[in-house]
Design goal:
With about 260 residues, this protein is of the alpha/beta class. It is built from eleven helices and ten strands. The chain has one domain: 2-enoyl-CoA Hydratase, Chain A, domain 1 (Alpha-Beta Complex). The strands form two sheets. The protein has a six-stranded mixed β-sheet with strand order 1-2-3-5-7-10, sandwiched between helices. Helix 2 crosses helix 11 and helix 5 crosses helix 6.
């Protein structure tokens, strides 16, 4: 059914959505974006699912956007770039709007879009060895489509510490930035996730979904969500069209420093 992800649901209704491109550090390709969007919609609509755990195979949680996907967008038509950016924005929105509790099992590094996926989880748990970074500006890009969720999670003041510099930071700083709630040893990660999941199994599913919707309503921004999404899509498309993005991604594939480094 899926090529880049897999779904496991136990008898209690706890579903694990596994990112399954371990050999690519679970980087987000066009197919993976489409499959996550479809899967989370199905899980959200399934009355037998009580909780969703967003997890990943391999050493990394998610390395962000697949660089070949980004390279393809630089060479695409404006319409193609916009469609690609919209697909990513809609994937994040689908995760954010999932009516089921979404628990992030962050077993390894997360960069760029991986940070965006963590930001839309209701709670995320990680391990001490994990490293994080909003690395887009190193490539001449910006973290545009993930920005509404990252800034909402961290708050503007904390986001300024890491949003533009592309510097890497560790698990303790990720907790200080409110990106993760807990840090546990790798061998304790599954138990920690279970501790987050179990309370929901004694709650009324409809009440949980409505409570989660209330949070979104009460934290609504001044502009409608559709306007924010359109603005971030336009920002990402403009960056993909910029000379800096062309130089940054070309330099990456040519294994050299970009001109500004």
């Amino acid at each position: 059914m899926f090529e880049t992800i897999r779904i496991e649901t136990d008898a209690r209704g706890v579903a694990h959505l596994w990112l399954a491109r371990a050999e690519k550090h679970n980087a987000l390709s066009a197919l993976m974006i489409e499959e996550i969007t479809r899967a989370i919609a199905d899980l959200g609509a399934d009355p037998g699912v009580r909780v969703v755990v967003l997890a990943a195979e391999g050493a990394s949680f998610c390395a962000g956007g697949d660089l070949k996907w980004m390279q393809g967008n630089i060479g695409a038509t404006p319409e193609g770039r916009a469609a690609s950016a919209r697909a990513l924005a809609e994937m994040l929105a689908a995760l954010d709007h999932c009516p089921k509790p979404l628990i992030g099992r962050v077993q390894g590094n997360a960069f760029g879009g991986g940070i965006g996926m963590m930001a839309v989880c209701d709670v995320a748990v990680t391990v001490p060895e994990a490293r994080f970074g909003l690395t887009e500006t190193r490539l001449g890009l910006t973290p545009a489509t993930i920005s509404p969720y990252v800034v909402a999670r961290m708050g503007a003041a904390k986001a300024r510490r890491v949003f533009m510099s592309a510097r890497l930071f560790g698990a303790e700083e990720a907790r200080d930035l409110d990106l993760v709630a807990r840090i546990v040893a790798p061998e304790a990660l599954d138990a920690a996730i279970e501790a987050e999941v179990t309370p929901y199994l004694s709650c009324a599913p409809g009440a949980v979904a409505e409570a989660k919707a209330l949070i979104r309503m009460l934290s609504a921004r001044a502009r409608p969500e559709s306007d924010i999404m359109d603005a971030t899509i336009a920002a990402l498309v403009a960056r993909w069209e910029s000379p800096e993005a062309m130089e940054g991604i070309t330099a990456f594939f040519e294994k050299r420093k970009p001109g500004w480094a």
